[in-house]
Amino acid sequence: MRQIARRGFVAGAAGVVAGVVAGTAGAGEAVAVTQTVPKARTGASSEQQARSHSVARRELRGMWVATVANIDWPSAPGLTAAEQQAELIGYLDEAVDRRLNAVILQVRPTADALWPSPYEPWAQYLTGVQGQDPGWDPLGTAVREAHRRGLELHAWFNPYRVANHTDPSRLIPTHPARLHPDWVLPYGGKLYYNPGLPEVRRFVQDAMLDAVRRYDIDAVHWDDYFYPYPVAGQVFDDDATYAKYGADFPDKAAWRRDNTDKLVRETAERIKKIKKNVRFGISPFGVWRNVATDPLGSDTKAGVQTYDDLHADTRGWVKKGWIDYICPQIYWNIGFAAADYAKLLPWWDEVVRGTGVDLFVGEALYKAGDPVQPAAWQDPAELSRHLDFAAAYDQVRGHVYFSGKDVVTDRIGTMAQVVADHYRHRVRPPR
Q1: Residue among 121, 212, 133 at smallest CA distance from 174
Q2: Which domains, from first to last, does the chain contain?
């Protein structure tokens, strides 16, 4: 996700900076990290770890390309169709050069579309004007050109975010949120569709699944935006909806989680009915629940817990087999006190074990070399150490990097080191 804009992230979500992790560790806190990679699992010998570098097994090597607020692509609104296409092709070529094998392209950033959708308007991030035809089909082009290069194309959708402002009059008159104002709630400086309305859940599914029907995408991908991240002093005002639909639940939180569960389960079922080979993956904030909240939780002290704050039971979706892959955003360094990469990755490894759900790890490339980040992120080897650590966990099937522009600019050579240490040869994604 990120006021600095991490995946759609104009507000600090999916890549939530250290401050969100709460209380015990501030954003600028330096954490000492030894040069030795912790031993990941009893019995994982150095020989086994070395073998992981020489045997070319299938794994996902991906990068997110965010379109909301022109984070990655297009670099600015209003470029010509030729310029937009050239920039998009540049990202695909960069993925090939880095020996990646998947691009996760954001195609529905704010209840809009980067394809000619019959449900929603063209995204303003293309032309600068919502609803204006850019003169080409970005999603169709991305799928075709990615496959030509041997890359998977995962179409990344945001289900409920309508706008990064609270003024419906700024949406085009034909926008579904204008036609159905009762569907929309303002919160935290943004507009959201109300997840508690059955008609909203059906509509957002229809809008997203249009792309599944029309294009040869490899996966439907969601990030961490379900119910919005908590904003101090503000209320997500769904009381009337809860009064209408929540009678069978012990409290509003349980009802909200059920709403999110329905969205996930129904979408999964509908994808498979349309195209059995299209995968469904979700990339949540890295902490389901802290162990102090729930004995099944991770040994963390995060200020956000997806189960409680986003009403998203990410662990439950894995255990129930509703999704094909989970890609938790483990956006902290090894040794970070409130949310240690070396504790969260093993926790997720155990969550997926025996479920048939693939585990990919979201990696915070955008933090590398950022002066506001802890000391560990000033070391170009930090992410390479993450992959060394993960090699001892057999449920980890790959890594995904946020975000595209950071893969390209590679501020302190972190991505180059990952490639040199771990991506010496191209491999296929797992299937």
Answers
A1: 121
A2: 18-422 (3.20.20.80)
